[in-house]
Amino acid sequence: MRGLTWAALLGVEGAIHDKYDAIDKDTPIPTDRQIEVDIPRCHQYDELLSSPEGHAKFRRVLKAWVVSHPDLVYWQGLDSLCAPFLYLNFNNEALAYACMSAFIPKYLYNFFLKDNSHVIQEYLTVFSQMIAFHDPELSNHLNEIGFIPDLYAIPWFLTMFTHVFPLHKIFHLWDTLLLGNSSFPFCIGVAILQQLRDRLLANGFNECILLFSDLPEIDIERCVRESINLFCWTPKSATYRQHAQPPKPTADSSGVRSSTPFFSTECPDPPKTDLSRESIPLNDLKSEVSPRISAEDLIDLCELTVTGHFKTPTKKTKSSKPKLLVVDIRNSEDFIRGHIAGSINIPFSAAFTAEGELTQGPFTTVLQSFKGKVIVIVGHVAKHTAEFAAHLVKMKYPRICILDGGINKIKPTGLLTVPSPQI
User: Where do the segments described as Disordered lie (predicted)?
Assistant: First the structure.
């Protein structure tokens, strides 16, 4: 049932056979040579895919995709991406083609443009921020030795892991991937790194390159479990990408699908508001170690008011401990004039010693007691908030993020509080 279940999850519908039959899969095209070279190297341990019939089907499905997407190009790796769909729908090429055509815009939007470097660069930058968010110690080590995602993660994401895992593992992984949204792959990537964590931390650049040239055995069950956990800890705007697929306008009002799992937050996509994240130039994004989160997410996480279109259906137990800490790094005068309820004030100018340690102040212990929970840095100078966050990451604080747009984003909401005057 997996082939049909996946097709349903991908929203495949309509006259898929007529559509597939109408595509010219015979006229020679320039891509034919590359396809001929790639097929005999793609998941050939499998007897279906290595059979002459398998090769012929591969060729037709891949050509159909290339011909029907004139704005995109065939990149090496597209064959790997096709393999799971072809295997599951071996006697239904039209369905294999339809699934692949639905999967790519959702998870790999514009990855197959002729010039895809801006898309890939943004994706890898967000991935770096996710590593820092979930595992600062590993992030610090990998950055120090210069082992950046560009060196190992492109085949992971470009093929959604089909280039690095055998089919039986991909089925298990994609069963979960297809329930998550387009940012779920970041969590899979972090989960893979965390499985290799001890070896990565113990080694330098060359050893890491070797380790990844032939990826060691990964426990896929554990990988799935851990990626779901990472996903649940990630504020949804932290993985915002300006090159992701734009949200579809929801025409029907019955867009609420109650059967979706608890970690799927993209059905339907929230409308963009003044409190959403803004796009920033790639170079600015690259200069920030920690991810930004939207004002919307912050309000939601602080439970300041019950606004927001998205509420997790998991039971919210009102524990006395808040689940996140807001650190306001403006000077104390600005802080007194108005701040987010429950936030603490650690002015940027005097927050760190020359050695990069936290200066002991009234709130240092509060900050330390929140190590491990989500900590949001708020200010009004973006460069300062980014630097403050980077300092905390250096000190191995996980789950650090920056409020996108700073305190000015919160001002119009009327949610800032002023302390009562001391009489």
Answer: 241-280
pTM over 0.70: yes
**pLDDT tens digits, one per residue of 312-353:** 333 344 444 567 999 999 999 999 999 999 999 999 999 999
pLDDT tens, residue by residue, 159-183: 999 999 999 999 999 999 999 999 9
Q: How far apart are CA 389 and CA 386, in angstroms?
A: 5
CATH architecture of 116-234: Orthogonal Bundle (1.10)
Alpha-carbon span 406 to 378, nearest angstrom? 6
> 31-34 long-range contacts, Cβ below 8 Å, gap at least 24?
31/63, 31/66, 31/73, 31/74, 32/63, 34/74, 34/76
**Domain limits, the chain:** 1-108, 116-234, 282-307+320-417
Choice among 164-168, 197-201, 293-297, 304-308 with the minimum mean pLDDT: 304-308
Q: Which CATH class is domain 1-108?
A: mainly alpha
- State how far the Cα of 368 lies from the Cα of 27, in Å rounded to an integer: 66
Report how far residue 315's alpha carbon sits from residue 195's, in angstroms, rounded to the nearest whole number.
Answer: 30
